[in-house]
């Protein structure tokens, strides 16, 4: 009985998140109607408020889901690289490239910061930061990267990737901006390579 109730709560949350994700992507956060999205999945506004408190809480849940997917996708794409430095770059570039996707542009990079504030302060960013620090520590130990402060460098690299993604999302010409952003990111990141490293 308790297990069934927990499953029903989780199912309700999932339905609301999927409906909201679709509504926010199509109409934007401000224009998305909570009545329409709850009706679309056969639920009431009460279910929304019970699970997420308000529309902002629902946006936060949608962003957490998308952010997790983005991190997994970037990590999977970078895992194809055997070289640690190339893997670090590939993960950041994969993240930047996702800014070309309309859903990510609208929800993660435009509405998210406008409603929830600075993306670098979102809890999900801690996972990316920890992963980048771990990669840097390994590369420093291997002599590939200069003996820099891993946390400071990880924050700056992640910040550069995030700002590149925000720039792309705000641009009238995202693909052209993507190419410039990736080139600049590689140049900046390359500054931490030890002399003689590839």
UniProtKB/TrEMBL annotation:
InterPro entries: Homeodomain-like_sf, HTH-type_TetR-like_transc_reg, HTH_TetR, Rv0078-like_C. PROSITE patterns: HTH_TETR_2. Residues 33-52 bind DNA. GO terms for molecular function: DNA-binding transcription factor activity; transcription cis-regulatory region binding. Keywords: DNA-binding. It comes from the Bacteria. Pfam families: TetR_C_41 (PF21351), TetR_N (PF00440). Signal peptide: none annotated. Transmembrane segments: none annotated. Residues 10-70 form the HTH tetR-type domain. This is Transposon Tn10 TetC protein. It comes from Herbaspirillum frisingense.
């Amino acid at each position: 009985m308790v297990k069934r109730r927990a499953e029903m709560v989780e199912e309700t949350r999932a339905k609301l998140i999927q409906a909201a994700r679709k509504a926010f992507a199509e109409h934007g956060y401000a224009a998305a109607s909570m009545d329409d999205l709850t009706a679309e999945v056969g639920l009431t506004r009460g279910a929304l408020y019970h699970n997420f408190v308000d529309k902002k809480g629902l946006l936060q849940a949608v962003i957490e889901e998308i952010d997790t997917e983005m991190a997994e996708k970037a990590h999977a794409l970078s895992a194809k690289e055997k070289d640690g430095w190339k893997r670090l770059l590939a993960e950041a570039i994969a993240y930047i490239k996702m800014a070309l996707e309309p859903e990510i542009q609208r929800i993660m990079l435009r509405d998210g910061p406008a409603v929830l504030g600075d993306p670098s302060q979102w809890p999900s960013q801690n996972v990316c930061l920890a992963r980048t620090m771990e990669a840097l520590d390994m590369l420093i130990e291997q002599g590939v990267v200069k003996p820099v402060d891993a946390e400071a460098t990880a924050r700056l690299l992640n910040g550069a990737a995030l700002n590149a993604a925000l720039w792309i999302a705000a641009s009238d010409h995202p693909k052209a901006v993507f190419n410039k952003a990736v080139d600049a990111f590689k140049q900046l990141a390359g500054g931490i390579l030890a002399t003689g490293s590839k």
